[in-house]
Write a sequence for this structure.
């Protein structure tokens, strides 16, 4: 529980196309700042070679749907045929919480918690295609993800996301850290 007089933790939504470097930036932010933590989502997609051990809780459709029906997610969405969901935040944790989710999930969070900070991390093509290919995505999968990235960019602008270009990991991480510090004041 948040102690009396203490501010409620910030909710920081980080969205952006696969390959934009969200995961790396989020890990850096958590390492640099012990007052920040990241939510671990549930997904029905198959694990990928570049997934870290704690990237997701990988579950089957039935387990996901049961958790959803029990009100276990604050938001969830179907992304390119697989389900992804953010578990309800732990109200005993006073750390600021990062949600690394897609823009549709960001929209749901924005509707429920308008004070949430929305950040879109982007990388321009052809760099994005190169990174997706390097992490082992199939070419048909890359095309789908690039199309989805274009759709998400437009939706992110509509929702007034703050856009951070990740051409340089250190600079991008610093820019997000500054947004978080400013919001804490
Ligand atoms: P990936 O398959 O590359 O790990 O993730 C695909 C997309 O799903 C990414 O945009 C990622 O941010 C998003 N995502 C991951 N977890 C969640 C979640 O819990 N909810 C929603 N809405 N999107 C998620």
């Amino acid at each position: 529980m948040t102690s009396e007089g203490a501010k409620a933790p910030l909710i920081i939504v980080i969205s952006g196309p696969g390959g934009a470097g969200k995961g790396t930036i989020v890990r850096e932010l958590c390492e640099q700042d012990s007052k920040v933590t990241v939510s671990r989502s549930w997904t029905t997609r198959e694990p990928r070679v570049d997934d870290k051990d704690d990237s997701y809780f990988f579950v089957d459709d039935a387990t996901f749907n049961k958790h959803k029906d029990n009100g276990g997610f604050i938001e969830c969405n179907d992304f390119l045929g697989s389900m992804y969901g953010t578990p309800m935040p732990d109200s005993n944790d006073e750390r600021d919480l990062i949600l690394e989710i897609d823009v549709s999930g960001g929209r749901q969070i924005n509707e429920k918690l308008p004070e949430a900070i929305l950040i879109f991390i982007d990388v321009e093509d052809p760099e994005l295609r190169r990174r997706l290919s390097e992490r082992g995505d199939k070419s048909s999968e890359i095309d789908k993800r690039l199309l989805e990235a274009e759709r998400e960019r437009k939706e992110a602008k509509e929702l007034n996301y703050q856009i951070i270009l990740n051409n340089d990991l250190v600079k991008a991480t610093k820019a997000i850290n500054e947004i978080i510090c400013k919001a804490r004041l």
